[in-house]
Please model this.
Amino acid sequence: MRLLFLGTALAMAFASTAAAADFAIPVDGDFWVDEVGWQTQGKGYEFRWLVIEHDGQLAVCGAGKYVNVSNKTQTRDLMRKAKVTLDGKPILKDLTFFTQLKSNADLSAAKATCRDTGAKAGKNSKVGLDISGRARF
Model:
């Protein structure tokens, strides 16, 4: 009985630690406006994103919406492969944690989900976003 309780307590502690990594902030004018589009299928995803300092490290925040149901699967796969870079080195992969809104929602009024990266920026550091790839339709 004691081992079962200890195992349950440890599982709950790990679950709460993982959930605590993400937090939310309102989207404002500081957020960058971006989109994912396909040459033959048109726009697939609109989003707002921002990199902020949080507890001494960088956090990536974002909110988005799928605007074309016919390419949603391919666009989601591409967002899963996306990378945020710091001085050319990846610090976060997979942007599917962004807050997802309905296709007719106003992104500028959303709450963005943020995820800590564990990286610290220097004085002249440069942040980049790499969303590239191919898909079959």
Remarks:
- The helical segments are 2-20, 72-81.
- The CA atoms of residues 9 and 15 lie 10 Å apart.
